[in-house]
Design brief:
heterodimer, A: alpha+beta, Serine Threonine Protein Phosphatase 5, Tetratricopeptide repeat, SH3 type barrels, two-stranded antiparallel ribbon, 8 helices, about 15% strand, B: about 600 residues, Immunoglobulin-like, 4 domains, 7-stranded mixed beta sheet, 5-stranded antiparallel beta sheet, 7 helices, 32 strands
Chain lengths: ~250, ~600
């Protein structure tokens, strides 16, 4: 019984290792193809990795680069956005995203947010959700240690210091926990989409009776508010709304 | 002195050159049968000549050769030129139609033989009267037909590719007496780049056989055209109003009429037929370096200097020579190293029109200033043209050139003064995305996050439970310890009393050393129990410190420790006597009871 359990663990582990090495070789091949400017073939490799159900910041970042080189700017933006979901403050991805946005036609002024909200958003976007979670756990452990010290320490000085530290560290732990939650929420949003078609007209209502109210171009980021058949209601970053055909957008998730 | 010699030599040369004579022949190319015409051989500046007449067949020699000599002297800007010409004139009559050659004539002058080329004279049958007479006769009718005078625009090619040069010549043909022209409308050549290559000040008439009739022909203009569009391009007709002198017809046929002719001028508008040129587009697949050059070219590049100092100007020359649309050549792009300041190229043209195209060369001079030192390589200049003969694109590539740029010595000139360094802002040349990540990343399953996962909550729960367990364990331990302390505390007095009792018993039974031992134990044991100290921990300093912490009277502490010290001392000292022993005993009882009150 014990033997079979051991065998099972060994098998799953070796299967996992084999899969990882297959993905790594695909990754290296695709990178080599990219270096030789064979972007179509490099992309095939990256897509294969993506379809195998594994992901990483680096994969999405490289795919964004590849699409940019193939001048498919909507897809480039899509993949940079995906990469930024896994590492929201990555300098390279942010830099490349601004460069791709230069190629896009639509310039939209986002509605200015309350400065505190902005600060908080900026803060929790500094780290990926996983890191925030690890932080919160470590800080919680620290805070609990300080609580124990406070309760059982011999000297009064140590106890005083422990009390203050326990409170501060606990506060930080809770904040990290909340940030982790927010960051994950942001990373798993299903309502963000990128306009795929070169030109798409936004209508006031779904279907033929809708009047054209806006013209959007490839690469513009929109928020999807609702779906109705093959139509979606979208909102721009500046608050304007309208209806678009579902096949004209790419969801970022 | 030198200059004078050069001047003399050049004058001599000039004399020599002017002494070089010519020998030429002049004859109409087309004559009518029965017409009389002149055949003139002219020897210019050939002294002491002896003329050998040509062989004349198929023509009647009516007169000749008659010799005439002409001397001419000219002063131009104080310089005298003198020339002498001798002409030998024949008057010939054609008597049968056909093309006949008049053979070469020669002249020997100073032992040098000069020869004329054989000339061909065409004799036409159709016109049985000399042209001049016919003109007169026809002119008597004021009716001028389209056959009498017409304008033609001839092109040397009708099917060309875009950019291929072609020649258009505007020619006036007449068989009447054209005295002048008015209101000339030259062709406009829409869709072409055009350049006049021949526009005479004076019209030169020549004879030509047009469908068996003799016409006077004059070339008015000649153009080189470069098609700029594709498809059928029509050259719009050009127009001339010819002023023709016509002898007015008289009723009275008088002999004198012939002498007192009255002429009237008639205006006749002549229009050239329009010409259509078929322009093909250049074939597809032109390399990116192709900029519209059509023809046949060669490429040459060179640098003004091979080595310069920084901030010194140097020129690179690119010469494109050959034939084709050379006048429209664009400056080829030259890739200079990035730290070079490049100025617009200066273009020097050296081409002429010949045989309906442009031939020669075009030189582009690129002035550059290297701004940093080192050895630089100037990339090859790439020039692509469309070869008309083979119908393909051909790319010429120069060899890369090395340029040595030495450090400028300029800053040495500013000794003692602040030497200007050539610091500059680093400028961005372009922007591009950053390169891909190449190291193998940590892969994770799609859509799986640590945040909010089972693992996260498990670890959280584990942390909390560990903390809870630790907490409760520590609490229990503390409580247990507290119990021990309390017991020891409460029993301290009792034990001390018991020990004191034993000590008292020892004192009575004169057991001197045991007495001190017991007393010492009572004092140590009591204070250790009270302060919850183990035997190992207890020392006099520790006890003092702990008692101080508990705010016990300093005097009492001192008394207590002194007592302990004297007990220890007395154990090894000789017997101090009964009274001393009793005093210590009483002191111990008093101190312990006092301590008991303070510590509780």
């Amino acid at each position: 019984m014990r033997k079979s359990a051991f065998l099972f663990i060994l098998l799953t582990f070796s299967a996992f290792v084999a899969k990882a090495s297959a993905v790594d070789s695909l990754w290296n091949n695709a990178n080599a193809l990219y270096a030789e400017a064979q972007y179509e073939r490099a992309l095939e490799g990256y897509l294969e990795i993506e379809q195998s159900g594994t992901e990483s910041f680096d994969l999405y970042y490289n795919m964004g680069n590849t699409y940019y080189k193939m001048q498919q700017y909507a897809y480039a933006i899509l993949y940079y956005e995906k990469a930024l979901r896994l590492d929201p403050d990555h300098a390279d991805a942010l830099h490349n995203l601004t460069i791709v946005r230069e190629q896009c036609i639509d310039r939209i002024e986002p509605i200015p947010q309350f400065f505190v909200t902005q600060w908080i958003r900026k803060s929790y976007k500094k780290l990926p959700p996983g890191t925030w979670s690890v932080f919160s756990l470590v800080l919680l452990a620290l805070s609990l240690t300080f609580v124990l010290l406070f309760v059982y320490a011999g000297s009064i000085k140590l106890r005083k210091a422990s009390f203050v530290l326990a409170v501060v560290v606990f506060f930080l732990a809770v904040t990290s926990g909340i940030f982790a939650r927010q960051s994950k929420k942001e990373a798993t949003r299903e309502d963000i989409a990128i306009i795929k078609s070169a030109v798409s007209s936004v209508k006031s209502a779904p279907g033929a009776q809708g009047k054209d109210i806006l013209v959007l171009h490839e690469g513009t980021k929109v928020r999807v508010l609702e779906e109705a058949g093959e139509w979606v209601r979208i909102e721009l970053e500046d608050g304007r709304q309208g209806w678009l055909l579902l096949h004209e957008i790419l969801f970022v998730y | 002195m030198k200059k004078v010699i050069i001047a003399i030599v050049s004058v001599l040369c000039f004399v020599q050159v002017s002494a070089q004579g010519r020998f030429s022949v002049e004859v109409p190319g087309v004559v009518a049968m029965g017409e009389r015409f002149r055949l003139v051989f002219t020897a210019i500046d050939l002294p002491h000549e002896t003329f050998t007449p040509p062989k004349i067949q198929n023509f009647h020699v009516l007169a000749g050769p008659t010799t005439s000599t002409m001397n001419r002297m000219e002063y131009i800007n104080g310089r005298r030129t003198q020339s002498r010409s001798v002409s030998y004139t024949y008057i010939l009559e054609a008597y049968e139609p056909g093309s006949f050659t008049i053979g070469e004539a020669s002249v020997v002058s100073d032992n040098v033989t000069y020869k004329t080329r054989p000339v061909v004279v065409e004799v036409i049958q159709g016109a049985d009267k000399p042209a001049e007479e016919r003109t007169k006769e026809q002119a008597t009718t004021t009716e001028i037909t389209d056959d009498d005078v017409f304008l033609r625009l001839s092109v040397n090619k009708k099917r060309v590719v875009k950019g291929e040069p072609l020649t258009a010549t505007l020619t006036l043909y007449t068989r009447v007496n054209v005295a002048g022209a008015e209101d000339i409308k030259f062709p406009e050549f829409n869709g072409f780049w055009s350049q006049e290559v021949y526009s005479p000040q004076q019209i030169e008439w020549q004879r030509e056989n047009v469908k068996g009739e003799i016409y006077q022909k004059a070339t008015l203009r000649s153009y080189v055209l470069l098609p700029q569009q594709t498809g059928e391009i029509r050259i719009d007709p050009s127009e001339i109003v010819c002023v023709i002198q016509v002898r007015s017809a008289r009723r009275g046929q008088s002999l004198l009429d012939d002498f007192f002719d009255t002429y009237q001028t008639v205006r006749k508008r002549v229009i050239s037929p329009s010409v259509t040129i078929f322009v093909r587009d250049l074939p597809s697949g032109a390399p990116p370096s192709f900029k519209g050059a059509v023809g046949k070219y060669s490429l040459q590049t060179y640098l003004g200097r091979d080595s310069v100092r920084t901030h010194d100007a140097v020129s690179m020359y690119v010469t494109i020579a050959g034939e084709g649309n050379i006048n429209l050549l664009e400056a080829p792009a030259v890739q200079f190293p990035l730290d070079f300041e490049v100025y617009d190229p200066k273009i020097t043209d050296d081409y002429k029109s010949s045989d309906g195209t442009f031939a020669g060369s075009k030189t582009f001079e690129y002035p550059v200033i290297p701004r940093s030192h080192g050895t630089f390589t100037i990339n090859p200049v790439v020039f692509t043209y469309y070869d008309i003969h083979t119908g393909t694109y051909k790319t010429l590539r120069s060899t890369p050139m090395a340029l040595e740029v030495a450090r400028s010595t300029e800053s040495n000139m500013y000794t003692g003064v602040y030497a200007p360094t050539h610091r500059r802002k680093v400028e961005s040349l372009g922007e591009d995305i950053r390169y891909i990540r190449t190291t193998a990343p940590v892969w994770k399953k799609k859509g799986v996050y640590f945040t909010g996962s089972v693992y996260y909550y498990t670890i959280l729960a584990a942390l909390l439970s560990i903390a809870g367990i630790l907490f409760s364990w520590l609490k229990k331990r503390k409580e247990r310890k507290k119990d021990v302390v309390r017991v020891r505390n409460s029993k301290a007095n009792k034990i001390a009393r018991a020990r004191l009792k034993t000590a008292g018993a020892h004192m009575k039974s004169q057991l001197f050393s045991a007495y001190y031992e017991e007393l010492n134990r009572a004092l140590w044991g009591y204070i250790a129990d009270k302060l919850a100290l183990s035997q190992a921990e207890s020392s006099r300093e520790k006890i003092e410190a702990l008692l101080m912490e508990r705010q016990v009277d300093e005097e009492l502490i001192k008394k207590y420790t002194d007592l302990i010290a004297s007990c220890e001392f007395a154990r090894y000292a000789p017997d101090p006597g009964q009274t001393e022993k009793e005093r210590i005993f009483e002191d111990a009882v008093a101190v312990i009871s006092k301590m008991e009150q303070v510590l509780k």
